[in-house]
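Q: What would this complex look like in 3D?
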Amino acid sequence: MPSHTENKGRLAIVGLGPGKREYMTARALKVIAGAEYVLGHSTYLEPLEPLLTGKQVISSSMGKEVDRAQQAIDLAKKHAVAIVSGGDAGVYGMASIVLEVLEHDGADIEVEVVPGVTAANAAASRVGSPLSGDFAVISLSDLLTPLEIIGKRLEAIFGLGIPVVLYNPKSRGRPHNFALAVEHARHHLGKDTPIAIVRNALRENEETIITTLGEIEEHEPAIDMHTTVIIGGSESRIWKRGDDVKGIITPRGYHRKYVY
Amino acid sequence: MPSHTENKGRLAIVGLGPGKREYMTARALKVIAGAEYVLGHSTYLEPLEPLLTGKQVISSSMGKEVDRAQQAIDLAKKHAVAIVSGGDAGVYGMASIVLEVLEHDGADIEVEVVPGVTAANAAASRVGSPLSGDFAVISLSDLLTPLEIIGKRLEAIFGLGIPVVLYNPKSRGRPHNFALAVEHARHHLGKDTPIAIVRNALRENEETIITTLGEIEEHEPAIDMHTTVIIGGSESRIWKRGDDVKGIITPRGYHRKYVY
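A: Here is my prediction, written as structure tokens for the whole assembly.
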């Protein structure tokens, strides 16, 4: 790797984790502290504000990801730049588009992707252990993936009985995709299949709901673009303490080997 | 939630991330700092050593997870206990077995699951952006899941053309499961499908190999129990700078909407 000179910039694509600073990695904090320019969606930049003093901050709204990527690359030709994503930058985040645009641009910039706690893991941690074994991550946004393909994926994966994490489960632009996902789930999973709705996981105004595939319609209004939904697999079950519902457990299979 | 009294313990199930302390969250560090007892596999405890002064440390080898879970729960009836997992505690980690044993035990202990950067995201960050959209996480260990079921899952998911992250791709006890996964991949994916082999992601002695489904046999000896393997999907491609192979990009689909 080339050593840094004063004329040479660098670009970090940084996953911030769920939102609160205590769930960021030390590496993410360090890279942001060392940046001259910080780019990102305003939602993600707000919790960072105390760290941004003296830096050039370029905040943007949703959309325009291609422009934002090109701007980050142009700045990184001479400066230390951090472009931030919520969660993990490599999962529905900025990493791929920045690397694609960089490849087209051809600039010889040092790049680092800093991983973060992705929404699947943040949400799961608030409701027990729903993803203990194999699982799949599917976005219900049909902005970049045709709805037909999303449906085909859901159908096949629910058929395997493994838990599925739904990113972007609903937004004003696509209010019906969640109902479609539920329909696919019902082709394969029983009505007692546990479902977790986690809104603002490990952020301000966090809310969690534990329900089942049979009763999901009742809770659908709670689902929005700040929500991650985990649909359990065929082995997942509600986790209780006495009569209190605490969350979801997907056993890893120790019960097939040990008595406890 | 009940307030703490001196007689009442608490239990944290903590994901440490890939290994180096700079990829832990501040929350994980804080919970470990506040624990009287820290339990975990010796591999995961070693990098924490400077934090463990003055604590009771109970280190164990692989296996005996059920006993370790019960021990953590018994201690947590009166003490502040942290039980640690590499990566995210909810993904092939200790969270599910601890919660299962706790449910059987019936003890009224306050429990917190602290999420971490899981191996899928740590490994992906070292090789570009291979998991940018939907993906699945499958373990090739047949210790707790029958091999037949693993094969069925692989066959269906490769058929969808989404990237697959293989955890536990090989160990001395199951040297042939990786070849089986490759066979399933070849039923659906072309020989140019990119594959990343990431050994010790974000730990000491990190190694990455970018290859293809057509040439994977050549690199199979590099795969061991410290390795995460990412098999790209139908849209994944090698990321190059000039003639240098830098990693893998799975485009999110912006190219279908924008020119860049």
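A: To summarize the key features: Chain A touches chain B through 80 residues (CB under 8 Å). The CA atoms of residues 35 and 80 of chain A lie 5 Å apart.
Q: Very helpful, thank you.
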